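Cont'd.
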Amino acid sequence: MSGFDLQAYLAERRALVDTALERHLPSEAAPPLTIHRAMRYSVMAGGKRLRPILVIAGAEAVGGAATMVMPTACALEMIHTYSLIHDDLPAMDDDDYRRGRLTNHKVFGDAIAILAGDALLTLAFRLIADNADLVSDPRVIRDVVAEIADAAGTIGMVGGQVVDIESEGKAISAETLEYIHRHKTAALIRASLRVGARLAGGDAKAVAAITEAGSDLGLAFQIVDDILDVEGSLEELGKTAGSDERKQKATYPGIHGREASRRQAKMLIDRAKERLGVFGQRSAPLLALADYVVERKS
Amino acid sequence: MSGFDLQAYLAERRALVDTALERHLPSEAAPPLTIHRAMRYSVMAGGKRLRPILVIAGAEAVGGAATMVMPTACALEMIHTYSLIHDDLPAMDDDDYRRGRLTNHKVFGDAIAILAGDALLTLAFRLIADNADLVSDPRVIRDVVAEIADAAGTIGMVGGQVVDIESEGKAISAETLEYIHRHKTAALIRASLRVGARLAGGDAKAVAAITEAGSDLGLAFQIVDDILDVEGSLEELGKTAGSDERKQKATYPGIHGREASRRQAKMLIDRAKERLGVFGQRSAPLLALADYVVERKS
């Protein structure tokens, strides 16, 4: 993007998020030690911090700042992490590696991994409540709780995960795959942008624009994830590449082909960027993030 | 209690709660069907509805009504149910029966049971947010979200469950057992009473009194649960009696003896009732509920 240094932006925001996560997670020295160690193990395992950075970018697009939305940004990362911990369980995807390290249940056992996920989801809502102290109109907190609960629940992320599990080993339609992607991944990405804009006082027009962009961005992100899973290597992704295939999961390139998938992701990103035009100068981080979603290698 | 018909009170409130739960749970006809069926299976399996009734009684004690707190009352029952679904999993307590029926994972499989628990916890916070429309000061919602998240998280219910799991098969101290009981059970019972009073506009003095009473009531409830587990039968409890012993779990009567346990529960209930004196006439339901906690047979 013309003059915008995305790598510096991402590195700075990621450092802010990591510092805030470190502060908001319970101390490993506080009892019960095991669960706090397990929560920190997965949250502090690195990762792109895409969702919290989108919360921040959503706030910045309407003139807000990272400090106004940081507890909610951390909440979104905790919800994302809880979903990964539970997805990796033997009863679900049965994965041994995540972000290049052993999965939570391989280190702490299934019981603690289930509880660590539960605890992260619970703590996420505590953090959203705490965000009330940082915004000009604390009544917005109620809407943010509702939006994030919807995006994470059965009409969002959990719903997508259910259909994903039920589709394993089956030939599914393009519509079912899009349902899975829109719910399992895109819903939380869209919500991240939306709540960032809402907490920072964005008006209805701004929130509508960011919602549509978030929807496209979220779907494009998952399409690219599917492509990377097909192409990637263990080294680059930090998880077993080709794992979708091994689990007989339908993927976007599997149904539409790799070229059509790339084109579709590009189209969605272009449309998202067009919609972000309303924010003028302030949209620079979001426009760069949109390009990053399709161009990333991991 | 002098003239107060507890059975009628419980039956009426339970019917109100069941109707509200029915309304707030996603329809079994809405996709994804499986997860909605699994959520309803466990929530609508009956049960005492103690936590939602305590939310209502907490509101009534400060002059409020059931209608003002019903979404939050349902939220507490959903959090309680999610904890039972996850506790029953093979990776945790590995129970086949609950409330006289097959446990969630025995019917729907481990993956859906994990997700149904996740979804109920998530929906609970959605309902608390919705409660904002029913109270005079919607800013209290932020505090209610925070209180319930704390009571359900690692400084509350999940924390108690972690120590419970880690203590299985070990000789634990009376202090550790009290830690487990206060966190795993009492924290959510106390929070139920507190948020009922807060949503209905209770002042600081009222909330303080109800908090102390809730703390005693919660611990007494779990002590009686332990006694019933030792004494009970499959028929009465709807789960395998003596299951704590089978799992080598420490119990209150196991450590203190059955007679001392009964005396301790009675002392806690008497103290709770004394503290509820500040509510005068309005405390009748709570006083009767307190007696019910020690006198119940299941």
